[in-house]
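TICKET: design request
STATUS: open
ATTACHED STRUCTURE:
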């Protein structure tokens, strides 16, 4: 592995321009993020609130932070003042807390509906019907400080490309359904966050607009 900025640059060269790369810097030190930032890369994702808040406080404020992990609603208040996009919105309760904390912070918070597409039971996420239920509800109509701008999903961890490809197809198709039923005139509803270091090529083939890449840029993580 070279410098982080080199790794990001070579990643950008191998993906289409309409796919946004979100480098996932979790567990990695500030100096790696600073190296990238010095070369103009200013978007990063984290999956733990405490680490995200610490890095936000320690690093320059022009970095755009994405929260990609599961989030407990009592932690929303810590990130609401600065986070750019929450990829893992997986309950109506969380949307309501987002709305409340965003209002307090005087902001609009962007979110993605996380769908449960993998066969593993441990991965979080909605079924399509649950999202339709939320969007049809009277309570959702009163949400003012949350902007849902797309979907996110994680495929099963397997070497079987057919399985991964089928799951990403499902996610894409749910995105299309949501778009045509609820967001047809909403230009901001356009994101499909799918693809990680091990499956981003399949994800891009299946219509991803955002890939979340950790180890392929920053190196393996040590537990
Ligand atoms: C860690 C993480 C990633 C990046 O994983 P890699 O396999 O290292 O690329 C992407 N998305 C989420 C939600 C993560 O927690």
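STATUS: resolved
RESOLUTION: sequence designed for all positions
ATTACHED SEQUENCE:
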């Amino acid at each position: 592995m070279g410098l982080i900025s080199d790794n990001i640059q070579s990643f950008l060269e191998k993906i289409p321009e309409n796919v946004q790369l979100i480098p996932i810097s979790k567990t990695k030190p500030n100096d790696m993020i600073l190296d990238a930032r010095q070369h103009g890369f200013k978007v990063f994702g984290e999956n733990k609130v405490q680490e995200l808040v610490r890095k936000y406080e320690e690093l320059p404020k022009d970095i755009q932070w994405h929260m990609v992990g599961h989030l407990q609603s009592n932690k929303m208040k810590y990130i609401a003042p600065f986070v750019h996009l929450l990829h893992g919105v997986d309950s109506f309760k969380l949307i309501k807390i987002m709305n409340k904390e965003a209002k307090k912070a005087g902001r609009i918070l962007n979110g993605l509906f996380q769908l449960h597409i993998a066969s593993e039971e441990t991965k979080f996420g909605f079924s399509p019907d649950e999202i339709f239920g939320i969007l049809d509800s009277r309570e959702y109509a009163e949400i003012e400080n949350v902007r849902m701008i797309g979907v996110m999903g994680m495929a099963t961890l397997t070497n079987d490309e057919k399985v991964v490809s089928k799951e990403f197809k499902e996610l894409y198709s749910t995105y299309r359904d949501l778009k045509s039923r609820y967001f047809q005139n909403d230009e901001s509803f356009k994101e499909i966050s799918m693809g990680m270091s091990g499956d981003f090529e399949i994800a891009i083939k299946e219509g991803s607009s955002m890939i979340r890449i950790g180890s392929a840029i920053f190196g393996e993580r040590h537990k």
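CLOSING REMARK: Residues 24, 26, 47, 68-69, 196-198, 212-216 surround pyridoxal-5'-phosphate (CB under 6 Å). The chain has a mean pLDDT of 96.
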